[in-house]
Amino acid sequence: MTIRIAMWSGPRNLSTAMMRAFENRADCVVSDEPFYAAYLAATGLDHPMRDEVLRSQPNDWQDVAAQLAGPAPQGAGNSDAAVWYQKHMTHHMLPEFGLDWTGGFRHAFLIRAPARVLNSYVAKREEVALADIGLMRQVELFDRFAEETGAAPPVVDSDELLRDPEGVLRRLCTALAIPFDPDMLHWPKGRRASDGVWAPAWYASVEQSTGFAVQSGSDLPSLPEHLQRIADAALPYYERLAAYRIPV
């Protein structure tokens, strides 16, 4: 039976690099932001490559949910993949989008300091509000899944992931009850067939990567006043989730 993992992240949280790590496992297939088109269709928001995104995916959230809860994609050897990793953006999960399809999934959360998220986000899309970075919705989803399962889902902090990729990935795999695979630490450069059609607008850096770029510094970027206000408003949500991050 396929293990279905839902990784709940905000934008610019190293979420695509984490997807690369899982896709590099021999036992795993991945899905890249499957609710993106449904989110754009429901909100009417103008995002980079909006028309291409809408054409590339189902526009009805119920169609997406049925796919994600349906038959697993084939992995190696033309059999169902052992692990199906689904990369989800929490802000895509609008309140009217149901979550009953997630029954039996193993959930995890990927977070990043709001100042880092905003500093990266505005390089791709200048217009940004607190809801766009997903932290409020991330907390709501965390609370829901913790209540449903009776345990707090594992939380990975992107800064800690960059400081100790192997250690954090090993602990994440343990928390998800799957074996750690050293191939998660490195991957080939370039675009993947599994990448969303929006990759040219958002994935330039990860396409040049071959692994997690280990960092040692911890200083947060300096933000202009309007972005700092958003970062300050987001901080309590980030800190709430950070309290549950997997041990370092």
How would you characterize this protein structure?
It is a single chain. This protein is α/β, with parallel strands linked by helices and 248 residues long. It has a single domain, classed as Rossmann fold, CATH 3.40.50. It contains eleven helices and five strands, in the order E-H-E-H-H-H-E-E-H-H-E-H-H-H-H-H. Strands 2-3-1-4-5 form a five-stranded parallel β-sheet, with helices on both faces. The chain is globular and about 55 Å long. The two termini are 31 Å apart. 39% of the residues are buried. GO terms for molecular function: hydrolase activity. Pfam families: Sulfotransfer_5. InterPro entries: Class-IV_PLP-Dep_Aminotrnsfr (IPR050571), P-loop_NTPase (IPR027417).
State the total count of DSSP E strands: 5
Distance between the termini: 31 Å
From N to C, what is the helix and strand string? EHEHHHEEHHEHHHHH
Q: How many strands, what sense, and barrel or not for the largest sheet? A: 5 strands, parallel
SSE class: alpha/beta
Q: Quickly name the level 1 CATH class.
A: Alpha Beta
Number of helices: 11
What's the short story on this structure?
The chain is of the alpha/beta class. The chain contains eleven helices and five strands, in the order E-H-E-H-H-H-E-E-H-H-E-H-H-H-H-H.
Please outline the helices and strands:
Layout: E1 3-9, H1 15-23, E2 28-32, H2 36-43, H3 50-56, H4 61-69, E3 83-89, E4 106-111, H5 114-121, H6 135-149, E5 155-157, H7 158-163, H8 165-176, H9 199-202, H10 204-207, H11 225-242
Parallel strand pairs: 1-3, 1-4, 2-3, 4-5
Helix pairs in contact: 2-3, 5-11, 6-11
